[in-house]
Structure to design on (404 residues):
């Protein structure tokens, strides 16, 4: 407290239509409380109101990722330090009650003490675009699954002739066939089933085209926002998008890799008492990010010899498969944090094209470097971004003349 600069500290309890703001001085005394509309004019008014009490040092805002996003962007754009404030704990709410004024004052005092605060995510970069596209992609994918299940159920209860025709087909074949139906009198259950199936099939085709477009955009954006992350083994566009959104446009706000692991729910939680020293599973954090780490672990357990060797060693020590996966997720969180905050340059995407230009095969390049063709292929595809042969392979491509 003594080291804090003198001035005014603000706190804002955000809502859809109205934001309630409180101003406190350096001693924590409430100077005033006021309400402002949740629109650009209200943001300007709130900022001017806080600055009318003196130099504005810091503002604590609840919900910087939802109702407070617009206010957060406004204050950050004019150089005001904004921190995200965690809602008051249950004990404080039982003691002081719950109201917008109380919450705004608590946010202002949290900004003053810099406790229960964190740096808000930046919402003005490529990762924000990824988040928005991912929302649409997940919704579209869920709709496709629901329609696929409805088509399956309609076929299951359809008249026997229609059922025997469609049941052996795959989902794609069913959709293709049903989209071409020309139903007659819908008073006939068979014709009504055809009409229903055609409607669902055409919806499926439209959504499937939208899904392909969204995936293409997500692929390009994640490759641009995190090329080193995408180059890591087991991380494709979907997993990369989850991890990038979890970290935000400003991953430097995460103080260390332990904080990122906690954010992903992959950090063990201390649960010791007396003579008992133990840790329990962290069931909090971003569960989508936790699932992304699990997917990476599953891919590496299936395809990475190093990961398999680690799992075998831990199993020999008495660890269960579930415990081994938890350990793997913690290690992967450390790797992902480094790739997000201090990314190493990913291998050049044109390595394969450059080799093709020389007219040489994978086998010939591998023979020249004294390795296996699979190793060269992994380097070209970005699955071995830190391989010791990468510089030598680049030099070979730079110095080798195209074949006649």
């Amino acid at each position: 407290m003594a080291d804090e600069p003198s001035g005014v500290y603000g706190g804002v309890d955000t809502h859809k239509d109205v934001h309630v703001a409180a101003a406190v001085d350096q001693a924590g005394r409430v100077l005033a409380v006021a309400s402002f509309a949740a629109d650009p004019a209200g943001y300007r008014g709130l900022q001017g109101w806080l600055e009318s009490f003196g130099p504005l040092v810091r503002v604590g805002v609840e919900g910087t990722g939802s109702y407070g996003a617009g206010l957060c962007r406004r204050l950050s754009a004019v150089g005001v330090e904004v921190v995200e404030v965690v809602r008051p704990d249950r004990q404080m709410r039982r003691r002081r009650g719950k109201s917008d004024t109380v919450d705004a004052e608590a946010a202002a005092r949290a900004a003053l003490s810099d406790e229960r605060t964190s740096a808000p995510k930046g919402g003005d970069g490529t990762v924000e675009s990824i988040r928005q596209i991912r929302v649409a992609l997940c919704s579209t994918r869920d709709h496709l699954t629901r329609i696929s299940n409805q088509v399956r159920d309609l076929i299951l209860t359809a008249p026997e002739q229609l059922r025997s025709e469609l049941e052996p087909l795959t989902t794609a074949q069913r959709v293709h066939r049903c989209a071409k139906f020309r139903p007659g009198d819908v008073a006939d259950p068979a014709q009504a089933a055809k009409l229903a199936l055609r409607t669902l099939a055409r919806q499926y085709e439209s959504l499937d085209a939208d899904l392909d477009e969204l995936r293409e955009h997500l692929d390009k954006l994640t490759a641009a926002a995190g090329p080193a992350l995408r180059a890591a083994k087991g991380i494709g566009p979907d997993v990369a998008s989850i991890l990038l959104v979890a970290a935000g446009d400003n991953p430097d706000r995460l103080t260390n890799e332990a904080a990122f692991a906690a954010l992903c729910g992959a950090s063990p939680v201390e649960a010791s008492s007396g003579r008992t020293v133990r840790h329990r599973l962290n069931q909090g954090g971003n569960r989508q990010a936790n699932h992304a780490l699990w997917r990476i672990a599953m891919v590496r357990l299936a395809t990475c010899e190093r990961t398999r060797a680690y799992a075998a060693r831990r199993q020999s020590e008495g660890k269960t498969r579930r415990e081994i996966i938890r350990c793997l997720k913690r290690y992967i969180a450390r790797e992902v944090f480094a790739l997000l905050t201090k990314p190493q340059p990913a291998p050049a995407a044109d390595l394969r094209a450059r080799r093709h230009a020389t007219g040489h095969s994978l086998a010939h390049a591998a023979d020249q470097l004294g390795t296996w063709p699979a190793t060269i292929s992994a380097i070209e595809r970005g699955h071995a971004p830190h391989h010791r042969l990468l510089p030598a392979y680049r030099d070979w491509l730079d110095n080798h003349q195209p074949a006649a």
